[in-house]
Amino acid sequence: AIGNSPPDFAGGFGAGMWAVDIHLKAMSIGIKQITNTQEPTATHGFWVPDNSGPQTTGPAVQGQFPAAAFITDFVGKEGSLGKIHQLLGDTLLSAYAMYDLKSEHASRIAVLNLKEWHYDANATNNVRGNTTVMFNVGSETQSVVVQRMRSDYGAYALGFDNGGPEQNTSWAGEQWSYRVDEGKGHFLNGPQSETLQVTNGTVEVVVPDTEAVMVSLQRHVAPVSASSC
Q1: pLDDT at residue 50, as a whole number
Q2: Phi, psi (rounded to 5 degrees) for 203
Q3: ω before 54 within 30° of 0 (cis)?
Q4: Sign of the four-CA dihedral 144, 189, 112, 119
Q5: Helix (H, G, I), strand (E, B), or coil: what is residue 87?
Q6: 221: Cβ–Cβ under 8 A, 6 or more apart, which residues?
Q7: What is the band of 39 on the pLDDT scale with cuts at 50, 70, 90?
Q8: Cβ–Cβ under 8 Å, residues 216 and 142
Q9: Beta-carbon neighbour count of residue 93 at 10 Å?
Q10: Does the N-terminal peptide bond of residue 59 adopt cis geometry, omega within 30 degrees of 0?
Q11: Measuring CA to CA, which residue among 9, 34, 8, 39 is closest to residue 20?
């Protein structure tokens, strides 16, 4: 992906999925800092400030940018960053739990379905697979809030600026475009989330292929475990 690969591979939404996974994995094993490539000609940079990018005609927010917001929200506000534990490390499915610094209880969980899916205009159908993940969050957690980093176009989405509206990418309903808001971020239909009730200490979350979700526990409890169904 760092070499001379096509822009929609190295600089598409799939690269944002990889960015989330590598950052959370790094935090879980004690790596303190990762520096993303941000030179203007970098296909896999989060944004391009001018027209020097391989797929840009001017300043642009690229398709993988929502990964930055996802990672930031997973880390949390100042003082809330605790230990990160990897729950699942399958080749195409990753899950990480963030434990609150003060209570040491699980606060939120990130799940990434890394199985590649992309929209194909020439295909007879574009069926998108999914994986159901079951979390054992304990009886003290009554519900969870689920937010999604997603794109209807899938792994090759270049974002609104580079690919147009059909290749838009978003996190929790928020999207970014230099052409629309100079990259400040905006909502088309307000913030998006869903609340799921916990039954007998467990909750199931459906994660489509090439999508990442963040599960926020409404009442903290530890430990947390997960398994794919």
Answers
A1: 86
A2: -145, 145
A3: no
A4: positive
A5: strand
A6: 105, 106, 137, 138, 139, 140, 141
A7: confident
A8: no
A9: 17
A10: no
A11: 34
Cα 75 to chain centroid distance, Å, stands at 13
In whole angstroms, what is the distance from residue 111 CA to residue 62 CA?
22
Higher-pLDDT residue of 125 and 147 is 147
- Sheet of 130-136: strand order equals 202-208, 130-136, 225-228
* Distance (Å, whole) CA 148 – CA 151: 10
Amino acid code (one letter) for 18: W
141-166 pLDDT, tens digit per residue, is 999 999 999 999 999 999 999 999 99
In sequence order, the 6+-apart residues with CB closer than 8 A to the CB of 171 are 66, 69, 70, 73, 147, 148, 149
Dmax (CA) for the chain in angstroms is: 54
Count of C-beta atoms within a 10 Å radius of residue 190: 8
Check: CB of residue 208 under 8 Å from CB of residue 129.
yes
Q: Which helix (H) or strand (E) holds 214?
A: strand 211-221
